[in-house]
Amino acid sequence: MMQDYFLSAFSDPAMRKALVACLALSFSFAPIGMILIFRRMSLVGDSLSHAILPGTALGYVSAGVMSIGLMMLGGMITGLLVVFFSTLVTRNTNQKEDTSFATFYVISTAIGILLISMKGGDEEVVHMLFGEVDAIDAKTLLLVMAIVSFSMVTMAIIYRPLIIECFDPVFMRATGFRGGLYHHLFLSLAVLNLVAGFRALGTLMAMGLMLLPVASARFWANNIGPILVISVIIAIFSCTLGLIISHHMHLPPGAAIVLIAGGFYLVSLSFGNNDSLRKKWLKPRHLRG
What we know:
Layout: H1 2-8, H2 13-38, H3 42-51, H4 53-63, H5 68-92, H6 97-119, H7 122-130, H8 138-167, H9 169-174, H10 179-201, H11 206-217, H12 224-249, H13 253-271, H14 277-281
Helix pairs in contact: 2-8, 2-10, 2-11, 2-12, 3-5, 3-6, 4-5, 4-6, 5-6, 5-10, 7-10, 8-10, 11-12, 11-13, 12-13
């Protein structure tokens, strides 16, 4: 009975395509989410997820239908524009980077919601914000796979300078590395991946799959390699279980997936081997500070 419950969810070809897309995104989301957390840029990442909304909405309004190509292109353009203007403000004023991103993402979100409301109804808004399984067709799946492949190759190339800048930016500058170049390239990859994930997960939920597995993994491991592996495993389980639940209970897939990832985070926070609540509360009395 339980086996039928799990397998029946993927009897639909659209569900299988959505599963493949989400599993592929799990591999590229993990390293990007890890860098965001290591560099304390989680809120910046969340701003980027909102920044793609007006572009996707503009693509939807322009085409008059759910044109995946135009919506992804629009999302990528507006996401990169937010990165550009936020960085420009940060470098030329005293405003901090997180404040700049937050300012522009609020404006972007408002514009996106207005555009969607002018063209479509509540159903279109829900699908755009929280994902839609039926939107993952063969062309969209190929585009997602191409973005994931490009992202993983690029991350492998810039991985070392990114890690160095996370832990020792002074050494980075002393050795002559152009930290700003890698920073902008990394943010561009984050935007590209969020655009790739918005159809299945939604513009508001994509960041959840990018951050929650990494945040959970840090309660189980200290080293970068194990953190990445655990993050990918948690993301895979979250995607699979979330899609199954969304299918049987008729819920938005993005919200279901992020909710499962949130459950993994709460379990890790409570029982993990590394700085979890269990470690703090069950510490021997003579070691408690």
